Model the fold of this input.
Amino acid sequence: MNLLIVESPSKAKTIEKYLGRGWRVIASVGHVRDLVPENGSVDTENNFAMRWQIMPGKDKQIKLITDEVKKADAVYLASDPDREGEAIAWHILDILNSKKLLGKTPVYRVAFHEITKHAIMDAIENPREIDSNLVDAYLVRRALDYLIGFEISPLLWRRNLGKSAGRVQSVAVKLVVDREREIEDFKPVEYWSVSGDCESNKKTFTAMLSRFNGDKIDKMTLKNSSDVDKVLSKLTTPLDASVSDITKKKTSHRPYAPFTTSTLQQEAARKLYFSSKKTMSVAQKLYENGYITYMRTDATNLSAEAVEEIRKYIKNAYGDKFLPTNPNIYVTKSKNAQEAHEAIRPTHFDMSEHELDGDEAKLYNLIWKRTIACQMTNAEFDSVSVDITTNDKIATFHCVGTTRTFDGFMKIYDEDKDDSDDEKQIKLPSLSVGDNIKITKINTEQHFTMPPARYTEASLVKKLEELGIGRPSTYATIMSTIVDRKYVEQDKQRRFHPTSGGWVIAAYLAKYFTDLVDVNFTAKTEDTLDDVSNGKIEKLSALNEFWGNTKNMISSARDVKTTEIIDEINKFMMHHLFSDNNNKCPKCGGKLGIKLSKFGAFIGCENYPTCDYTKRLSDTNETQENKKTNEPKDLGNGISFRIGKFGPYVTDGKKNVAAKKYNADTITLEIAKELLLGETKKAEPIEIGINPKTEKMIYYYPTGRYGAYISSNKVNVSVKEQPDLETAIDLINNKKTTKRFGKK
Done:
């Protein structure tokens, strides 16, 4: 009998079906051994020697493995094809050797990136030795994390500064705190825009004022209402104008690369609202059941066989015009990506073969679409830039119309964006230089510059990846850890805010463990681990280099008095705690500041115990936006401004209208009225025409839960703008019904 050991029980069941008689497949259920959780388990004075123990609850699994090894003719270690998987194989082999159970029984290391019969049989026919470089990289990583945990955490506990500090998690917390400081320091700047409603041959469109009295009008040119009034005094509608310039060009958009771990987590967060942890959990199930390739990868390449299968599918399903002459090639951006790995893709491309529902169906569908789309043709666009000058030459208005002329890969997939408006396609009427234009109305709009957006899971993962911090296997753990330790929390819009504990630990580490939260230092450490994996640096050299710096920081931090630490934290948090610079005690007039206790940080008076004034830090931990969440701002006339589950909105008690561009400081009654009035106008459906197939009217709705849409005979289709009748009929009659993936 041959014994094959994998990580997961569900994976074991799937593989056993392929191998059949003569094989026994069992699971280690992840890691089986770890460092002894006590001081000295990494001996820094003795070449970083490590003391291991069987992990709690894994004795039963070890007994199963050892019992089966005794009966096996050959042992195949088939843990996951990454650094942690290599470590699991090494641990199991070390345990078996220490128990002297192997004798002459051969042990092979096999790795596969997809759970298909072909991939598994190919791996078994081509076994290898355990990769000592990968194991060394794991040992360095584990030693570093242990040393930070056991050397720095006691300093935090002793001073009531926090629960623990992690090598990568601390950087993530610092990024969230730094972003919050940017937001708190941000001063909104007012500016205005002026646009004109234009009419040509009974067709209307809008153009923005771009020049006035010979001067260029940029985004920030019109600083206040007085500037706008000067413009309006010279622009009395209706205005006679003509087209003074037209520029036409064609553009194209290349398909997105297939998913890596990072981009899958980002897109699942945007499109499916999955946390990184949930994305990886669902992807793990899909992988173990043979639906997708291995989900921890930073490579974007696909195997030649996969590309051939994808191209065949595109040709059959969409036709030659959606199939490029040559396969699309994607260059992996990560300098340390293992090109032997593939991007995340389905193992087969006929969706009718799969029985999936719920979250697994959603994530699989996302992966399937992205993978098919990556081998399709470019999307093509026509762009028209038009200048319209008034006949008196006082003003020029500018507009750009963009239309998608060929769907290409966007036929099935388009990527969502973080904190940016989607590119809007605007159709302009057919225009030529010299055409007469009537400007029927001048519109003005007040704006305020906005602070940088808080991180979501998607944007924080993207930032970490850009900085070279963390690796595919760690992003989900980083996100869940900083939340579980209560250093950050997510608001109703799923954006990260630092908690009081997050502020305190970020302040402490930034002052006394500068390298630990320095993005360049952390990225360099990740590069060092990759160099160990690739055999470029030896394990001991990497450990000595890291530990030399960290040991000095720890030694220095031990000698710092708690009063000095509190002073530094107060400096770091002063603006956050007292944005009005008023830190006087209301009871005695003394200075207020951070105090530390076993129950967490709080605000207290410097004259304690004479003065016993205290205030919960959480009371001051709310941002301006959060403070107003449950405090509606009364604007007058029964209209109020509020912050709800989906962001800022105004309400008159009968209807709510989104006000995402505004906050409590910038909203006015006039703006709120315009928003509510505009919503009333938009709410009325527009008749497009009769659908000859059903003889029912097709209506256009400018606003809906998911944006603009058309509707007829209980069929709804999302659109970006009002379509013509022919397009509307095509969209309604050819809408694909949504159904669960079922058997063919």
The radius of gyration is 31 Å. The chain has six domains: 2-130, 139-186+454-563, 190-254+379-448, 261-373, 628-683, 686-733. The first strand starts at residue 2 and ends at 6.
